[in-house]
Automatic annotation (TrEMBL):
Pfam families: BON, Secretin, T2SS-T3SS_pil_N
InterPro entries on file: Bact_Secretion_Sys_Channel (IPR050810), BON_dom (IPR007055), GspD/PilQ (IPR001775), T2SS-T3SS_pil_N (IPR032789), T2SS/T3SS_dom (IPR004846)
GO terms for biological process, alphabetical: protein secretion
PANTHER family: PROBABLE GENERAL SECRETION PATHWAY PROTEIN D, TYPE IV PILIATION SYSTEM PROTEIN DR_0774-RELATED
Name of the protein: BON domain-containing protein
Coiled coil location: none
Domain Pilus formation protein N-terminal: 61-130
Origin superkingdom: Bacteria
Family the UniProt entry places it in: Belongs to the bacterial secretin family.
Domain BON per the UniProt entry, residue ranges: 136-193
Domain Type II/III secretion system secretin-like positions: 277-437
GO cellular component terms attached to this protein's record: type II protein secretion system complex
The species this protein was found in: Sneathiella chungangensis
């Protein structure tokens, strides 16, 4: 059996052989098309991808984040000869012996660190951001003050505290704890709200008892070379140690007094002597009753007195005038410790112009100031009072008026001498009452002139009244809530 030639096989099966050739061509075209797409895709990816960088450039493009007092060590492949830091107060660096760079954070903020090699090439280049570990601060504050609901935020150089505090003292404690996480130049922003009332009303009574006693004993002479007749009498309401012709009237007045007058008066002259046997006692009370209201931790001041000028040298040989205060000066700083506890720092001062310590400048006498001052810090409950006493001052003076030479005689000397003894004793007492107060509606307060009605002229002449009496139902009660006094001897508490 003879085999068929290939041409005969293809001739016998012409159509199948033609389909196989056409299918191979289509497959080749498909492969070429897909390869073209792949090449185009690779080209696009190459265009979109960043340029190839080495490990050193990749390290330079990164950002470094650190916390305060935290650090990281970076090994370097190039020996470093120079290191640059834009802000060493935020982060700093240290080179190690094994050619490493240690970067550590010092304060919150952002800075830049760069290390250069011997040829100027960049061995390290990073932006460093330093943050504060707020989680540790928040956990500690929440543990110590769970009722305050505190939140902590951080900004460069500042720590912001938000939440609530039951009292200013607790707020100071919270700030003190948080300050331990800050540097010397960093500060705390207090945004906490007070749950307790933070205003204190202080009623102060300042009393100065001035007790003065003076005694005069002696003889004062008033002689004019003019003989005349004799006059004997008493001088009344005479100021001690003042002798003059006005004390010797044309005819001696009789009456009650404390000094005796013996005189001789004539047409040609007169002679008189006053026998001093005078004793005086004066009692003076000075009362100041200020009513001060201040926020917790702030100072309230009171001043009642005056000012006197003091010349002060200035430039170009000019003199300016400054004024110095004297009188009653009071500074009070209340601090609310809790709902019913108050700490008060009080600084009262009472001063007066005195000749003691006076100086004379350019024929101008500048007086001195006698000052009594005390300073104390006490703690009491709301509504309680305290007193500061014992500020005593004692002055003793002896004034002697005498006739020269005659007063020095052994036996007759006292007849030509008058001695005035003066003793002045003062005592200062400060009494203060503190109350924690809160603002109220306007309806809760009473105007002292609300029921005031002036009288007409006829009523003033007949009754002597300057105002109509107030009706009983319209008189406000002198007691408020919990029996607190609203009206005192010098006015109302507003």
């Amino acid at each position: 059996m003879m085999a068929r030639a290939p041409s005969e096989s293809c001739a016998a099966a012409r159509s199948p052989c033609r389909r196989s050739t056409t299918g191979g061509i289509e497959i080749m075209r498909l492969l070429v098309r897909r390869l073209g797409y792949l090449v185009m895709l690779l080209a696009v990816l190459l265009l979109l991808s960043p340029p190839k960088v080495n490990a050193r450039e990749t390290e330079a493009s990164a950002r470094l984040s650190l916390e305060v007092n935290q650090g990281r060590l970076f090994p370097l492949t190039v020996p470093v000869t120079e290191v640059l830091v834009t802000n060493p107060e935020i982060a700093d660096i240290q080179l190690t012996a094994s050619n490493g760079l240690f970067v550590y954070g010092k304060a919150p903020g952002r800075t830049h660190v760069m290390a250069l090699g011997a040829g100027g090439e960049i061995a390290f280049d990073q932006s460093v951001t330093v943050t504060r570990d707020l989680e540790v601060i928040s956990e500690l504050l929440t543990e110590q003050f769970p009722e305050s609901n505190l939140t902590v935020q951080s900004t460069p150089g500042r720590l912001i505290l938000s939440g609530y505090a039951t009292s200013p003292v607790q707020a100071e404690q919270i700030i003190s704890v948080a300050r331990g996480f800050l540097g010397e130049k960093e500060e705390i922003v207090n945004r906490m709200e007070m749950l307790a009332p933070s205003q204190v009303n202080i009623r102060v009574r300042i009393v100065e008892m001035n007790r003065e006693a003076s005694k005069n004993l002696g003889i004062n002479w008033d002689v004019l070379l003019n003989p005349g007749s004799l006059a004997i009498g008493l001088i009344t309401n005479r100021w001690p140690a003042v002798i003059g012709n006005q004390l010797f009237p044309s005819s001696a007045n009789s009456g009650t007094g404390s000094s005796g007058l013996l005189g001789y008066r004539g047409s040609d002259g007169s002679a008189s002597l006053i026998i001093d046997a005078l004793a005086e006692e004066n009692l003076l009370t000075i009362l100041a009753e200020p009513n001060l209201t201040s926020r917790s931790g702030e100072t309230a001041s009171f001043f009642a007195g005056g000012e006197f000028p003091i010349p002060v040298s200035a430039t170009d040989e000019q003199v300016t005038i400054e004024f110095k205060k004297f009188g009653v000066i009071l500074d009070i700083t209340p601090t609310v410790l809790s709902d019913q506890r108050i700490s008060i720092h009080i600084r009262p001062e009472v001063s007066e112009i005195s000749e003691i310590g006076a100086v004379v400048v350019n024929n101008f006498q500048i007086p001195g100031i006698a000052v009594r001052r005390t300073e104390a810090t006490i703690e009491l409950a709301s509504g309680q009072s305290f007193a500061v006493a014992g500020l005593l001052q004692n002055q003793t003076r002896n004034l002697v008026n005498e006739v020269p030479w005659l007063a020095d005689l052994a036996v007759l000397g006292p007849l030509f001498r008058s001695t005035r003894y003066q003793n002045r004793e003062t005592e200062l007492v400060i009494i203060a009452t503190a109350n924690i107060v809160a603002p109220r509606d306007n309806v809760a307060f009473t105007n002292p002139l609300k029921n005031y009605r002036p009288t007409d002229m006829a009523a003033k002449l007949t009754t002597g009244r300057l105002a109509e009496p107030m009706l009983a139902p319209e008189i406000p009660s002198s007691l408020g809530q919990e029996g607190l006094t609203l009206k005192g001897p010098v006015g109302y508490i507003y």
